[in-house]
Amino acid sequence: MAPATKRRSTRQSASRKRSIYYEPDTDEDDFEASGRSEEDFAPDTEVVQEPVPKKRKVTRKRKPQTRSKAAARTKQTTLVRAFRIGKARRAQSAPVKKGFEGPSDGNIPNWKALPEEVLKQIFIYASLPVDEFSRDASANATWLLKTARSICRAFGLAALEALYQSPPMLNTYHPHQLLDLLQMPREERYINYNVKVHRLNMDVRTVAYAASGRPSLHLPQLVSQLPQLQHMEILHPRYYPPFRPVKVQKWTFSPTDLIKAFESCGTRLRTWRWSRDTIPRNDPIELYKTMSTAHESVVFAYLKRLVVTGFNVDDSFEPSTTETNAEGEAQQAPPPGLATSIAKLPSLVDLTFISCDTIMEKFLQRLPTNLERLELTNCLEITSEMMRDFFKTSGSHLKELVLNHNAALNLSFTTSLKELCPRLEVLKVDLHYYSEKDSVNDAEALYDELLPESDIPSWPSTLRHLEIIHAQKWSPEAAQNLFRSLVDNAPELLQLRTLIIHAHINIPWRDRAGFRDQWIERLGRVYLRRNGSPNENLGSIRQRAVAVQAPAYQSTGDTQRYSDSEVEHETPCKRQPRRSRRVAESQASVMDKTATPSPESDSESADRSEVEAWRRRAEKFIQGLCTAVDIRIDNQRPRENQWTEGDFMDDELSGDEDWNEDAEEEDDGYAW
User: Fold this and answer.
1) d(CA 228, CA 210)
2) Which residues form the domain of 621?
3) Does 224 fall in a domain?
4) Looking at the structure, do residues 358 and 497 belong to the same domain, yes or no?
């Protein structure tokens, strides 16, 4: 009887390596089996090793699951796949193809033969914006550099001039690199960059922080190298929507030192910005004395545009009227304020205030009387009464008026526009408001009603652009008065080319639908230009020549004419299709039955006729010269963040989430 062997467990035998048996052979057996010599069986130099056997995988036996647990697990897995964080969103539209796809002769113009000034204007137009603190500006600057380096030698000088006319300052290194370039010897530079810079817009974040391995930027040292500088602004992110404080390191400059640097190189500014965050917090009297001295200097003698930001009530200081003593002699003049210092600019025609709460009472009346453009943005204290008082003193020269995000300003001032602003050409009003803090939702209007029902706006005959958006907090009667004033004054508004009104009216949806249909159709009928479709044969010279040479197609009487256009081609004699006698009699009987209406249908038709009487009534005057007429009427409540359909997915998730491409997955079993 053979001895008993030890029995191993299944797990141990599976995890233990299997041994391979090789029977030893002898040399004599080999020589006897074959009649070859010993040299034929010399060992090879390369030794082939046996492959290591793979380890056998051990899988645990799955526990049976009930149908409810398996269904819940499958549903949870599908949800995890559908809402995975970081998953790429499916594109809603195909990528935009860049390039001209219209008709062309195939002839490339000789761009090299164009004058340098013309090429420069082309590059400036194609690269806008180039000096903004955005990704598009960086891409445009890179495109100009590539054009100057590698595309064409004739484009090099024009592309560089377009780039350095307003050099981009997109990071903390760019100001230092520009200063190093301007200080290089003239012999080592391709062109004289110092005289090419005409505009310098710098974000405060690029100068507030020191670049690695560089000292803090000394602004007077930079501007002293730019003799042709005309426009300069130091921008702050706080004075852009939503107009809230931003965490930026404090950075200020000395106005006196900067003015001296301008005078040393003979700079004559055309655009300047006073920002309260970039000026040291001194006494308001000393601040306005410095500003008045700067405005009286030669540097600001030809200033056309001035932007003032961040002057609040704490900085408010305006002198009172000059007092006289007992003998009738005038006493010493009081120190100047913000408005009086601005009035010392002799050539100022464009003035902008952003987030300035110092505009109160008679502040606007102290401004220069020759202003042609005025912009008030996020000024909480401005009212319609203040605007009317300003129109009485300075409204005769005003051509453009921009009023954005002023919570206390309604449209009551429009009743006197025709009389007090006879030269007004552009009126833009944005009634969208922002909260002062993130934690509080106080983006509400501070007036009782946008336009009282008794007020009827009047419009000057020189008006070219009218834009009122987010009009809210008013009655349908007041909105009707505004729309009717535009229709009635159409014979006088012959210069109007753009009409944009977005109104929010809180009325029932049936009334709002009829109100919207009426005024959108009437204003479009009166003002919208009806342009015919362009001639398809004028796309190129070759296309025009082919159309002229091609003989006109003469249709015969037997052929039928098809047309996809909406215009019906009238013919002198139009044959009606022949109908059978039976069809004609059946249609006549149906008409006789429906000829007598019921009393209910009579009342409904009468109401419908009263509502749509405006549609059958012809307008007194058709202006028909506006290229853009955008009228929107809804009942939305404007909020700081307006969500539209573009913010939501209007399509299914990409692909079938249940399809796994035949991958092997664990199959959830069921217990039967």
Assistant:
1) 27
2) 370-376+396-406+418-532+614-645
3) yes
4) no
